[in-house]
Amino acid sequence: MNERYREAGNKGRKKINLEPDDLVWLHLRKDRFPDLRKSKLMPRADGPFKIIEKINDNAYKLELHLEFGVSPTFNIADLKPYLREEDELESRTTPLQEGEDDEDISPMLTSDTTSVVMHGPLTRARARQLNQQERNMKAMGTSKGEEDSKGGV
């Protein structure tokens, strides 16, 4: 009977296996990080943080900054794997499909690409923005390189 209860309880649970040196997002619980979660509008997660040690399947030790002032050991429920841009799953929609309105991105590519000093935690949204800026800068660099090679012929 207990096995049936265990199977029912674990039915939708995903088994996440993290290893040392993996990067993870840390869920900032209100009871554990009261200064970082004073408002609903403050970030719920911070990171990415590197895993230093795997204690068991449920507990991991992270490389935390001293400013957090808490134990670096966390339950798997507070951790989410950090997916780099190339690791993220493909979107269900594909860009530039016929019959759809596509945004003109040429003004974004010609904008000033000065570096910005960041203040505060690196949230998922901020990480996405940084990846987008990096891709735009790479795209501008390759398009300029193509123009230079065509002009030299």
TrEMBL record:
Record region (Disordered): 84-153
InterPro entries: SH3_Tf2-1
Domain of life per record: Eukaryota
Stretches assigned to the Tf2-1-like SH3-like domain: 22-82
Pfam families reported for this sequence: SH3_Tf2-1
Basic and acidic residues composition bias: residue spans: 144-153
The protein's name: Tf2-1-like SH3-like domain-containing protein
Species of the source: Paspalum notatum var. saurae
